[in-house]
Description:
Elements: E1 8-11, H1 14-24, H2 37-46, E2 48-49, E3 52-53, E4 60-62, H3 65-73, E5 79-84, E6 87-99, H4 102-110, H5 118-126, E7 127-138, H6 141-156, E8 162-167, H7 174-185, E9 189-197, H8 205-219, E10 225-232, H9 241-251, E11 256-260, E12 269-271, E13 274-276, H10 278-281, E14 288-292, E15 295-298, E16 303-306, E17 317-319, H11 322-330, H12 342-352, H13 360-367, H14 379-390
Helix pairs in contact: 4-5, 8-12, 12-14
Amino acid sequence: MVSSRKNRQLFIDGEALSTLALVQEGLISPVTKLMNQAKALEVNETQMYKGVPYPFAFILAPSGKRNEASLRAVEKGEILELVNEGKVVGTLTVDETYEIDPEQRLKCIYGTADPSHPGVQNTMKRLGKVAVNGDYHVEYPLIHSHLTRVKETIKEQNAKNVSALMLAANPLNRAHERMIRHTLEQSDVVVLFLLKPFHNKGLRFDIRYDAIISFIENFLPANKVLVVPMENSYIFEGYNELILDALVAKNCGCNRLVIGKNHKALGLFYDENRLNSVFDSSKDIDIKITTIEPYVYCNKCRTLVSNRTCPHGQHHHVHYHSPSIMQLLEAGMMPPSILVRREVSANILSTLFPDRFKHLQELYDSLMPNDGLMEEHSEEDFYVKLMGLYQTNSLT
């Protein structure tokens, strides 16, 4: 999109652009536009919009002196160019500008404005004091293409039961795999929203995406599980995350959202002197929310189990604690196959530690059984075969 150089410009970051595009595509419907001051105040107070739960006002108030100066000078009907990373990515026709209280905004999203809170820290830096509303259009084709692909697959499969899963898969482990399979058993199609945060910790998104795709292509029925990158912007943070997840899943064509019972947003809270949960808050969203028991590996049962189905105590259980598994991978160690599938570990380690072995072919030929043929092998092949040696049990 070429700039006309006649209009004022509003500089927005990737989070704002992604969120504007998400709403533009109808994925957080009934919210379909930026809110004016009166509507913003009403939504913040009632946490409802058009009869549907919505935790806080949808506004655009970017930080920066240039942005604030432009918004204070702009007039109704004027067109603002939306600029991201030096490129004009859309336009906004101004209807109204108004002052906001950044601290109150933070409390609406996170329940706190404490600057030690990681989410508060990140959002505080990008939040200005003046909001603008009006009709807008942004160029962001990825969201549109993924939405189209999901709806076409649902139609092609004539799917009646479509379930959504929101996963970070950081990294993909055996419990994630079991959760996906369990959901697929009760669904015609599963839409797996793979979280892509803007402030990432752990594995890069492309590594997590490749692992999920490899698992689906090699170990699940074709065309039954779709992976949709879910850019997890600031509006999905805080204790209202599941309400927005439910809206996105519903508007993507799903009729069920499946979450683990250990999900951080499932806690109880008090509102108007009564105890509530996310199920109370989301009861007016036309989607069924179901929970799955967290899985553990039991060394007595010798398989993955839930606490409800295993009679053995906690001291027999191996937990799928993602940060701990990541510590092994970051140290260059292959997690046991009961934690992470060997193909996934091999893919991750060969990416994190490229060209790790000086004489890989010689090492491979020296350690691995072969049929005498000379073949070149990748580091990923080597890790897969190495895990096979770890699992040899006649001498253990």
